[in-house]
Amino acid sequence: MEPVRSRSWSALALAGLLGAAGVTHFAKPKPYDAIIPRALPGKPRTWTYASGVAEVALAAAVAAPRTRGLGGLLAAGFFAAVLPANVKMAYNYRTKSPRARAIAYGRLPLQVPLIVWALRVRRSAP
To answer: What UniProt keywords are attached to this protein's entry (predicted)?
Structure first.
């Protein structure tokens, strides 16, 4: 029974991460606006809010056992899709404080384990 509990915990932890990140897009949108690639049409705030909605929706999908498989797959795709914003953030932060640069640069390699985590959640779905 332990593996099932572990799989559920992992899915709920991923859902929590996605949900918390999604909420910050609304609570503190300005930092997200700054990393929206200029190549995207429309206003950065629209993309910030849209990605926040996407993260909250993904959190709900991953949390629910019936939609966990699809939610995990879509979360992995989402983590891959936001990589350009993380690259832009790292570029923008190149002249900031060492702490700010460390955070921005640290986000880049974190995308890979996030994608792997989401795919594991997908594979472990009931």
So the answer is: Membrane, Transmembrane, Transmembrane helix
Domain count, the chain: 1
Q: How far apart are CA 53 and CA 65, in angstroms?
A: 20
Range of the domain at 80: 2-123
Reduced to 3 states (helix: H, G, I; strand: E, B; else coil), residue 116 is: helix
> Do 96 and 53 form a contact (C-beta atoms < 8 A)?
no
Per-residue pLDDT of the chain (126 residues; tens, 9 = 90+): 445 566 789 999 999 999 999 999 999 999 999 889 888 999 999 999 999 999 999 999 999 999 999 999 999 999 999 998 889 889 989 999 999 899 889 889 999 999 999 999 999 998
Which pTM was predicted?
0.86
- Which region holds residue 82: left if phi is over 0, alpha if psi is between -120 and 50, else beta? alpha
